[in-house]
């Protein structure tokens, strides 16, 4: 395709038309210019391609539903997620889908977000790593992805109009940090802008977001597409860098583009830029097109493997799990028969097969089953409950399949609370009164309160909890193999489970007021907040148990004096000290010991998942660079790795650190410091070069402030000098004129002192 020539001969109307979709799922083709249509499709965790001729948007083809993002991230397994991506790419090629719309990389600010099941984590580093693996896998098969929703789409409530009010540091350090590495490393074919506004500007027409940041700073070369119906002002969007509007708007916005060009509000050059990117996407899709088939059975087995590796064992008192098939076992709960394995909305997959735990356990063990509760309403059914209690009384071990029904969480609305349905909690309470051996299997897309994990309101705690999240179409098979020990749990939580909703840092500002939501918690999202507050949680970020045990030893760093000039390595040894084979997620965190700005206690900067046979040891190596120490500087408007002391922490969760080493980091970058008369004296004293200058200034203003001869004459003794010095520390320099009898102390003289200090600082920066 000769793109330059095509653009040269296109009419204005053709250019405008090419920048919007033909329908919900196709770009426009232009027969005169031999420009073909290409198809896009929903499907972050499975292909949701519409059947030919389908009128209902839910009439999609049969496909494989893999675990949702909330589960995938708990695997901490880049390679396995890459395999899923490849499988999705194969399905897309077989179905002639050019771009699959995902993955979602938004941060889990609140557990209440109705779409959290589609997002990876509360931590931007983990989210970026899993998203990159997903994208690389898909695109290795010649199929494009759409990294979404760019950016700050962290709630469903009023998502099409709400303005996320976020300060500069928080926006970059938390919410954009999940996207930046993905854009740079995985290079998604498309990026999908979000519905919401950021600081008052719709993402779809935010030039700073779509051009200045995404393209000019991050170097993105692909296409930007709107979320479906996210366009506000199409001409402004084109100018800002929104290349493709989806779906089409019946030609209305095409005409708006033409009119804007004719009236001089939009330049032809700006429009041509978008046209070029649409043509480049079409060309890439066409040249990558290949005949490919896909194996449903193989992909189903892969879905099961991913579900097994993503499940998190939260509790296992007394080694209740794994189960022995020789025991009398009761499966209780409607989810055992009808598993909840995916979320509602645009990601809903028409699965070709779903296997329940009740089906999967056949041939493994003889179990009794009682439904216990219904899924369509949160009401206790006395008859179902009584049958469940009777089944529990007759069993040695009870496995309760609990979770959130589909109506509780979905795209389009947020949850109102973190609780499981009352009918399920009531049932678990009554079962715990008649059985000492209860395991709970959870199906949910986001954290829930777990009163049965500990003694709470008279409810006896259960012995074991297995979190399956929304584990895809093979979740029932995976759950059974995990329960009976055929597979050893190895997942770790990609988000914190707080004890209660009120503990969450966004609690006071979610979902906001009217069309505004303020991210007042700043960078303290998820474990960053709970760590800083030293707050007890139900289960911490990175947590997960195993049927075996691991020992960490021999931490080594390549150097104790680090710099921003070259990368460095950290290594340790992990040993499987148990009698079962298993996998462990080794996590590396960085703790700043001497920060000059308020920072989280520690942040995840590396992880590796290692499989170890019983008794086996393996060296784990992390390769890091200056970015591991960085925070977003609002003075530099850039990432800044500050000189100072840091602890390198290695552990099995964010709250279980087993190894640490202290290093010193030297930065070649200095933040320029300049003072004005608005600075308080304490700012000047914070620099060695300013200490003496400040003391001399105080002596001129009032000798008593610096412990002079007359200090203490008022009867306060040394306290007077201390008080005066404390006041001077917080007093703006210009105000000193009002606090002295010395006629020589003028604003002009103070400015000369400030200029002197600034000159000293400037000379040191050269």
State the strand order across the main sheet: 10-16-15-14-11-13
Distance between the termini: 52 Å
- Rough shape? globular
Radius of gyration: 30 Å
TL;DR of this structure?
By secondary structure, this protein is of the alpha/beta class. It folds into four domains: 1-37 and 202-289, Glycoside hydrolase, family 3, N-terminal domain (TIM Barrel); 297-512, Glycoside hydrolase family 3 C-terminal domain (Rossmann fold), CATH 3.40.50.1700; 550-666, Sandwich (Immunoglobulin-like), CATH 2.60.40.10; 681-764, no CATH class.
Written description of the protein model:
By secondary structure, the protein is α/β, with parallel strands linked by helices. It has four domains: 1-37 and 202-289, TIM Barrel; 297-512, Glycoside hydrolase family 3 C-terminal domain (Rossmann fold); 550-666, Immunoglobulin-like (Sandwich); 681-764, no CATH class. 29% of the residues lie in helices and 19% in strands. The strands form seven sheets. It has a six-stranded mixed β-sheet. Strands 1-3-4-6-9 form a five-stranded parallel β-sheet. Strand 14, helix 15 (422-432) and strand 15 form a beta-alpha-beta unit. The chain starts with a helix and ends with a helix.
